[in-house]
User: Fold this.
Amino acid sequence: MKFAVIRFPGSNCDQDCVLAINNLPGASADFVWHKDTSLAGFDGVVVPGGFSYGDYLRCGAIARFSPIMQTVKSFAASGGTVLGICNGFQILCESGLLPGALVRNKGLHFVCKHQSIRVESTNSRFTRAATKGQVLNIPIAHGEGCYFADDATLAALNANDQILVRYCDAQGQINDASNPNGSRENIAGICNETRNVFGLMPHPERACDAALGSTDGLVIFQSLLKN
Amino acid sequence: MSAITPEIISKHGITPDEYERIKSILGRDPNLTELGVFSVMWSEHCSYKNSKLELKKFPVTGPRVLVKAGEENAGVIDIGDGWAIAFKMESHNHPSAIEPFQGAATGVGGIIRDIFTMGARPVFSMNSLRFGDIRGDSQQSATNRRLFEGVVNGIAHYGNCIGIPTIGGEVYFDDSYSGNPLVNVFCLGILKHEQIARGAAKGVGNPVFYVGAETGRDGLAGAAFASRELTEESKEDRPAVQVGDPFREKLLLEACLELLASGCVAGIQDMGAAGLTCSTCETASRGGTGVEIDVNLVPKRETGMTPYEILLSESQERMLVIVKKGEEDKVRAIFEKWDLPYAHVGVVNDDGMMRVREGDNIAVEIPARQLADEAPLYSREAAPKKAPEPLDLASVPGADPLTALETLLAHPSIASKQWVWQQYDHMVRLGATVLPGSDAAVFIVREADKILAASTDCNAIYCKQDPREGGRIAVAEAARNIACTGATPLAVTDNLNFGNPHKPENFLQLREAIEGLAEACRAFDTPVTGGNVSLYNESPAGAIDPTPTVGMVGLVEKPEHITTQAFKAAGDIILLIGEPGDELGASHYLLAVHGRKAGAPPQLDYAKELAVQNAVRDLIRQGLVKSAHDCSEGGLAVNLAESCLSGNLGAKTEIPGTRADVALFNESQSRIVITFAPRHASEILDFLKSRSVPHTRLGEVTKAPTLTIEATGKTFAWPLEKLRTPFEKTIPSLMSWEK
Assistant:
């Protein structure tokens, strides 16, 4: 499976994503420049983390106008796999590929740490290798990761089983104390209705090597590679 | 142009003697723009005129040194297999005192540019920070908290956005820094030997390109500002503080690395302190050439800027690139790909002059070498040396160790800095294998498949009491921290923070500290690869405690050698390597519990120190050591508490000594506490005996979450939660004071 890792001006987890994916048997990744307009030859798209356009105006608000995003949208519309991580999640929300928005963390500070998240649904190509209720240790690193959506959107996300991961503590408990940024319903990541676009704030690419303290991020990539 | 009056000369910080020297270099009177150019290039910040004679005492050569200190923007050290590292530390103290967020942010931006200018990809940053006391409800404490918060936010803003992890450092709080915080930032980059880029204007006829942010009026003459004392009126110097744009720098970084890889570059230099002035005259001087530019061609953010303003602006995120003639189009294509403003502003010539035109008019014409490299050098008057008064132990009432340990852990200088480093993205680039909070940071450099350890250290109380001993210990402690991770020290960068050198007692501190550092760098075989001098660190209350910060980098041979301070398993034996010690002078115990900065600091013995470090490193490499932690502020008791808390395990120990507070809290040097499995005990003890390295078995790690220390026949016990609260909650609760 060949992934396109989109490179916006200000992306800074692009190299990490390529490295992590290229270390997986059966997967490879290449950079695609944001001014390009073709995704030919790729089986999946990763919109990586970072500070595209310096987070100016609003996180992800300018990147969605990059030429490649039109292609990403049609790629998604035709059922292609799109994974947005951190700033990539913000870009997917700004592009309308995912509902809701990511706003300033409740604590106002940038937070970088290992974080437990619970797999809420395995009914997706991103989480099918996990078990429901499985607690994953995956780092977060963001200042604007507080997921917000109105009540109607939240109800729809729940009804459609679109909430794939929630912040929790090491025991899997979901409560205010285990919510690092004030996200509504502890939401860490959601997919679209057709379940082929997934955005999450935690960084699975940072949890693919035991030397970095966790290999729990592998389950997301393994899900994508699973036939 | 108006005539140069003595008032104008003095306002530029140029002495009458220096003015005469300028006249003899030019063979005429300078014009105002030229005077401005000389004033920034001959400021302490750019010329090191008050410290250069002392800096020559540092060892700068060694088998691994590829680029020496002072030769280029940063030194370069060989790490094997064709790979090298470029690293450096630099201060942004004065800007941070006036505007903490931007001051710290642009400090990070500046040091990162110094690294990629060398052709290296920056892979991690660290910092060493000092603030006044943040406790209490005084106006001063509130200001110190505001500065602390602003600086941390500024570092986080810049480092996180540009995507270079901030993986470690140190933060101390002491009233000598009230009103004059220290912000020392460190960056390290990785490159192949053949990728070393030079800041020289080589090749007569080669075009000179300007690339990066447009020039504005921000940071006008910041280098000169940084070379003055801070006063009540310094706030009026706020325009001398630059504004940073990490997004621009990220583009500049990627574009420059792409440019250097393209082979089109003859020379490259960042515009940091003294901006366009410094980059043009330094590249010309290094290249043995001249450089001519036209300020009309420089991209500008504001209209009506004079040559004086353009040359002295310290707008951030700008580079000067000397392009190989004929490759201009390739270079333009790369800048356009990254959407960066650029302009072809000049040419390299052979007349040795820095010549600045404004269209047809010549605004500046100065011999480049004399401007860049021949600033006057001063040996200032040093006060006579006096030995520190030894501590009279009888004057120190023995405090209750139970509360004293909690008081020490709650001292902001010792308390956990998690509040700080959680705001830094320390995990980007997939390298931080030992997270902040252990002795030294350990980082896997993926592109080179190398593992580096890095530490910044300076105990300013030691330096205040005895700058020479303090300097020696700063290097020794850095090396000890590196040894505890399993690494071998490679080289050092330093950041020398002192008061006004015109005051003899301050100059004595500078000289003594440098001689101490230099001696220790020789002893540990760690050449100095460069660094920074920051003088004039004074506020209306007086000079700061002398703070010669050391940034040391080491190499870990194999991943299985990586060792941390956390206790690993119940039943493991806790062993002190080194002597139990009894020196309480200049200790944090005296400061935190008795409110005193007194006595002589502990005395360093190189032979003992090296024996301890080498023994620990060798044991680690034999795969026998589970944890290793250096003894520093707060002595053995704080050391044991930290290893318990980070491993979430207890310990049952006994510490020898005749007075409990001395036994627990003395700061004698050359001590490392290790743990290991009981089955390795005889092997380890035999090894230490064979090396004649002193050691004491302190006890064992326990599952029960209590730290127990027996001393002088009494037993002191702390449930871990009792230690965790002061250690972990102090800084977060202080920083939510007014919210």
